[in-house]
Amino acid sequence: MGKLDEAQSAQFADKVARKYGLPKGDVIKAMVAGNTSITVRGQTFVLDDNQLAQAAQRVVAGGVEVPKLKSYIERIERLEEEKAGIGADIRDIMAEAKSNGFDTKTMRAVLKLRKLKAAERTEQEYLLELYKNALGMQLELEV
User: Fold this and answer.
1) In the structure, what pLDDT confidence band is assigned to residue 32 with cuts at 50, 70 and 90?
2) Residue environment code for 88-121, b if the CB has 16+ CB neighbours within 10 A, otherwise e
3) Has this prediction a pTM greater than 0.85?
4) Domain limits of the chain?
5) Is the pLDDT confidence value at 121 over 70?
6) Would strands 60-61 and 37-40 be described as parallel, antiparallel, or unpaired?
7) Is 19 helix (H, G, I), strand (E, B) or coil?
8) Residue pair 45/101 in contact by the 8 Å Cβ criterion
9) Helix residue ranges, H only, 1-143
10) What digits encode the pLDDT tens for the residues 84-96?
């Protein structure tokens, strides 16, 4: 069975609702959730229609494959949680470095420069010096 578009999903839900005497909205909710049973007014109906199991895997609501979208969202959420943990670890290391007398702004600038390729880094440093000189910000060292 191929993917169901929104109209086909609605027709299939209508067919199942009539077959089991259930509210169509409850059938659609079950399809979107990937359930094979529905509880209405305390009574559970097992939807044993073979097509339902296939359709639940391919439900399209508003032109969106719900299970696939849900999978992407959950994967991104897990990565966001990991990212937040890594961010906290980086802040801890920066705090430790600061407590040992290191300038964290300069450390961040060094980290940014290390990400660049050598040619890009040289170009950026040259432009920075050029702009500083143009604005009269030359470094004057007293010896």
Assistant:
1) low
2) eeeeeeeeeeeeeeeeeeeeeeeeeeeeeeeeee
3) no
4) 6-62, 67-102, 104-134
5) yes
6) unpaired
7) helix
8) no
9) 6-20, 24-33, 50-57, 66-99, 104-115, 118-134
10) 999 999 999 999 9
